Amino acid sequence: MPYYRRVGDVPQKRHIWAEAGGARLHEELMGLDGFSQASSLLYHRHSPSAIVAAEAVDVRAAATSYDTALEPRHLRTFDLPTGGDPVAGFVTLFENEDVVIGVAAADDSSPLYRNAIGDLLVYIQSGTARLESTFGILDVGPGDYVVIPRSTTHRWTVDGLLRALVIEARSAHVQPPARYLNAAGQFLEGAPYSERDLRGPAELLAVDETDVDVVVRHRGGATRYRYAHHPFDVVGWDGCVYPYAFNIADFQPIVGQVHQPPPVHQTFQGGGFVVCSFVPRPYDFHPDAIKVPYHHANVDSDEILYYSDGDFMSRAGSGIGIGSISYHPAGFVHGPQPGSVERSMDEDRTNETAVMIDTFRPLRVSDAARQISVPDYPWSWAR
Asked: Which of 211, 233, 292, 309 can bridge 353 by disulfide, Cβ–Cβ 3.0-4.6 Å?
C-alpha cells in the first residue's frame, strides 16, 4: 500500500507495553519481504498464536493442463453452477506458477479463512458483501476491486448472490503499478487513480469469542486451526498493509489522438502478471483514427479479458457478453472481429467495462474452463 492508515487505539510507540481494560495487549506484526517492506502492527486482547487444535482439511486441487492445440477460447462463466461461499465455491479456470484465475458465484457467507499462499485480488461483478477481517469491516459492491494481503484472516458475509472474478497472486504482492508512484510511494500527478480513490477498513469488529475455527490455505493443502480466542479481538492497528477496495468506475482513462496500447489501462501489478481496467472513455480523436484495437500478437504473454458491462466494440459478432472471458494465448494473433472497425468509425466514445489480466508465463487451462468454452469461437474472425 502506498500510504499509512490507523484504526482504533494504538500505543504511542511501537513494541512497548500496551493495555486495554487493565489487561496486556498482544502485538502482531504483518510485514512483507522479511521485515524490509510495508508492514502493519495489530493489537489483540489475546495471543494470536494460541491454537488448541489443528487438523488437515481435504482440498482437491483443480485439474489443469496446457492446451495441446493452441486455440483462443471464449468462456461463458455464468454457465457454471451457483451456490456455496466465496472461498469453497471458487472455480479455478487458469493457473501458472505466478497466478490462479477463476470465478465465484456465492450465495452463502464464508468461514474464517486465511490464504498463506498469496494475495487475493477480487473483482466484484455483481452483488454486495461485507469483508470482515482482523483489520475491521470493508463493505464492497459491483465494480470494486478488493485487495486482501496474504495471511490476512478474513471472512465474507454475503447478501444475496455474489459474482466475482478472483485472482490469487502466488509470487510477488499485488500493488499499484510502480510507474504511478514517486520514491516516497505517493501517487504521481497524471496517474489514473490516487489515494483518495482507495477505501480501507474504518471500523473494528472487536469480537471476543473462544474456540474459533480458521481454515488456512498453505502449500501443502489446507489446515483447520482452532483458536483459543477469536482472531478479530483487535482493539487497534496501524501501518501500510491491510485490505482495501478500489472501484473500477474511479479509474480515469488515458486517451490520445490514435489508439493507446493496453499499458495505459494498467491498474495493478503482481509477480508475473498485470491487471488492466477498460472503462467508458472518449474514442481516439484523430480524424482517421481506427478506434478499436489493432490486430496484435501476444509475444510474451497470455491474455485474459473478463467482460463486466456495456457493449464490447472489438468483440461484436462473437457472442461475447457480460460474464464472458476471452483467452488469447501467446502465439495467437488476435484483434477486432469482422465489421468492428467499420462500426466504430462514427462513434465518439466506448461503452464497455472489462478487466484484463496479462500473464508472462503460459497458463494451464482447467477442466471447468474447457466445459464452458464456446466451440466455434476460434473461427469467429473468419465469418
From this structure: 309
| Mean pLDDT of the chain, nearest integer | 93
Which residue in the block uniquely carries the three cell numbers 490476512? 152
At position 198, the amino acid (one-letter code) is L
Confidence of residue 314 (pLDDT cuts 50, 70, 90): low
| 157 close to 97: Cβ distance less than 8 angstroms | no
Contact assessment for residue 178 and residue 269, using Cβ atoms and an 8 Å cutoff: yes
The pLDDT tens digits of the residues spanning 266-305 come to 999 999 999 999 999 988 888 877 767 778 887 899 999 9
For the domain spanning 251-382, the CATH number is 2.60.120.10
CA neighbor of 372 nearest in space, from 319, 329, 331: 319
pLDDT one-digit tens code per residue, 112-152: 999 999 999 999 999 999 999 999 999 999 999 999 999 99
Helices (H) and strands (E) in the chain, counts: 2, 28
Q: Are strands 23-24 and 296-297 parallel, antiparallel or unpaired?
A: unpaired
d(Cα 267, Cα 249) in Å, to the nearest integer?
12
CA distance 302 to 305: 10
- Residue 244 phi, psi (nearest 5): -150, 165
- pLDDT score recorded for residue 240: 96
- How is residue 316 annotated by DSSP? T
Q: Which residues have a Cβ under 8 Å from the Cβ of 32 and sit 6 or more positions away?
A: 38, 39, 149, 173, 241
pLDDT of residue 313: 65
Location of each CATH 2.60.120.10 domain in the chain: 5-62+78-247, 251-382
Distance, CA of 24 to CA of 22 (rounded, Å): 7
Q: Is 184 helix (H, G, I), strand (E, B) or coil?
A: coil
CATH superfamily, region 5-62+78-247: Jelly Rolls (2.60.120.10)
